[in-house]
C-alpha cells in the first residue's frame, strides 16, 4: 500500500469531503482551510510535482485546469477565487503529490508572502 496521503484520498482509503470526482481527478476540502472555501484538486495518478510531469500527462493537466472552473462554480465562487500550486522546497510544498489549491470567499492579498 502507498504511504502517499493524497493517493490514499484518491482511492478512498482515507476519507475526505469530496467536492468533485471522476476517473482521473478528485477535489476535496482541505483539512486546515486557509479561506472559507479551500479545496484541493489532484490527479489520481501519483505525480510528485509539476517538475515531474511528462509528455503523457498533458491531457491530464488540461483536464484538471478545465475542471477547476466548474468546481469553483459549484462551490459558489462567482466572485472570484485563487488557484495555487506549491512546488518544491522554496514554495513549501508539504504533500509530495501534485495538487492545486482553490481558495475563495475572502479577499486575497497580492503579492503572496
Ligand atoms: P501544500 O502545503 O503541500 O501546498 O498543501 C498541502 C495541503 O494539504 C495543506 O493545505 C494541508 O492542510 C492539506 N492536507 C494535508 N493532509 C491532508 C489530509 O489528510 N486531508 C485533507 N483533506 N487535507 C490535507
Ligand atoms: Zn500520491
From TrEMBL:
Superkingdom of the organism of origin: Bacteria
Pfam families: HIT (PF01230)
Gene3D superfamilies for the chain: HIT-like (3.30.428.10)
Membrane-traversing stretches: none
InterPro entries, A to Z: Histidine_triad_CS, Histidine_triad_HIT, HIT-like, HIT-like_sf
Positions of the HIT domain: 5-113
GO molecular function, one term: catalytic activity
Motif position, Histidine triad motif: 97-101
List of catalytic residues: 99
Name of the protein in its database record: Histidine triad nucleotide-binding protein
Organism of this sequence: Emergencia timonensis
Amino acid at each position: 500500500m502507498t504511504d502517499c496521503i493524497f493517493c490514499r484520498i484518491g482511492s478512498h482509503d482515507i476519507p475526505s469531503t469530496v467536492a468533485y470526482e471522476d476517473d482521473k481527478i478528485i477535489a476535496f476540502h482541505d483539512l486546515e482551510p486557509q479561506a472559507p472555501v479551500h479545496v484541493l484538486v489532484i490527479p489520481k495518478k501519483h505525480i510528485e510535482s509539476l517538475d515531474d510531469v511528462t509528455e503523457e500527462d498533458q491531457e491530464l493537466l488540461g483536464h484538471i485546469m478545465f475542471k477547476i472552473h466548474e468546481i469553483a462554480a459549484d462551490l459558489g465562487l462567482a466572485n472570484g477565487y485563487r488557484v495555487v500550486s506549491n512546488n518544491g522546497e522554496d514554495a513549501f510544498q508539504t504533500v509530495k503529490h501534485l495538487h492545486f489549491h482553490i481558495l475563495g470567499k475572502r479577499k486575497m492579498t497580492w503579492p503572496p508572502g
